[in-house]
Amino acid sequence: MKRYIGNESGLTLIELLGVFVISSIILTVIFSFFTFGSNAFQKDEAAVSLQNEANRIMTAITVAYYSEGSFVLEQKDENGDGKQEIVLNGAIISEQKFEYTMTPLSISSNVNPVELELTVIGSSEQITLKTYLRSVRTNGGS
Predict the structure, then answer these.
(1) For this UniProt entry, which segments traverse the membrane (predicted)?
(2) Is 86 exposed, middle or buried (0-12, 13-18, 19+ CB in 10 A)?
(3) Range of the domain at 23
(4) Is residue 23 part of a domain?
């Protein structure tokens, strides 16, 4: 009886399963890093958007306070949609995608100092800015 020894250079089923399991683990780890990175980016983007909105509104209020003697700043439901908007001299300066709270609810002149607190509320986060506005105008020349 002749014994035939063939070419045994192929892979066994166990070796293929091992490669498949190791590849699956590596791909899962790589996918987890991408998913985590994407979620962190979206969260940071939302926080930056809130910060930018709060800074934009606070800058508009500060400029109006220091440059105009008489102005009207209010928080009210201007559109009738149930959301409070920030209204400066009759123009809405807030965006529809956020909710706002402001203390005090209205300012009409820069005669008296004002401690202003503005909170911008997003879908999952909120940011609060506080500032103290005081008039730099003087009466008379001495």
Answers:
(1) 12-34
(2) buried
(3) 13-133
(4) yes
DSSP bridge partners of 109: 70
Q: What is the pTM of this model?
A: 0.67
Q: Please report whether residue 30 resides in a domain.
A: yes
% of the chain residues with pLDDT over 70: 88
Does the pLDDT at position 27 exceed 80? yes
CA-based nearest residue to 77, from 56, 92, 65: 92
Please check whether residue 142 lies inside any domain of the structure. no
Per-residue confidence (pLDDT) for residue 19, from 0 to 100:
92
User: Residue 86 domain-assigned?
Assistant: yes
DSSP assignment string, 43-104? HHHHHHHHHHHHHHHHHHHHHHHHH-SEEEEEEE-SSSSS--EEEETTEE-S-TTSEEEEES
